[in-house]
Design brief:
The chain is mostly helical and 102 residues long. It is built from five helices and no strands. It has one domain. Helix content is 71%, strand content 0%. Helix 2 crosses helix 3 and helix 3 packs antiparallel against helix 4. It is elongated and about 50 Å long.
Length: 102
């Protein structure tokens, strides 16, 4: 792809996604019809949720899965959309813990 084509594609993305440009969760939400101003705020909230769940020790995580499973599922969804489940990522992902709790 030449430089001009890359610039054109980036400009089209900026027009489509507004504040969510280069934010995967925000872009996903915009694709689902959410306004970019709300999508970016939701994405920031999910990042905070993911950080909080990541800070849980094993006991707290298992307790959270048992009592408020949807919180961990949402944090895990955020990680999946943002591609944080790659082996090089340092924070935890929760797929294994969620599967074990079924």
């Amino acid at each position: 792809m030449n430089v001009e084509a890359i610039r054109k594609r980036e400009l089209e993305e900026k027009r489509k996604y507004g504040y969510c440009h280069k934010n995967l969760v925000g872009m996903h939400l915009v694709d689902q019809g959410v306004a970019d101003t709300r999508a970016i705020q939701i994405s920031k909230g999910l990042q905070a949720l993911y950080s909080a769940v990541s800070a849980c020790d094993e006991w707290q995580l298992k307790n959270l899965i048992k009592k408020e499973r949807h919180i961990v599922e949402m944090a895990n969804w955020f990680a999946e959309v943002e591609n944080l489940n790659e082996p090089t990522f340092k924070d935890r992902t929760f797929t294994k813990e969620l599967e074990e709790a079924k």
